[in-house]
Amino acid sequence: MRWNLDPAHTSIAFSVRHMVVATVRGSLNLKEGFVEADPKGTPIRVEARLDAKSIHTGVADRDNHLRSPDFLDVGRYPEIVFRSERITPLGEGRYRVEGELTLRDVTRPLALEVETSGPIKDPWGNERLAAHFEGKLNRKDFGLTWNMVLETGGLLVGEEVRFSVDTELVAEKAQVGT
Question: Is there a smaller number of Cβ atoms within 10 Å at the N or the C end of the chain?
Answer without folding.
Answer: C
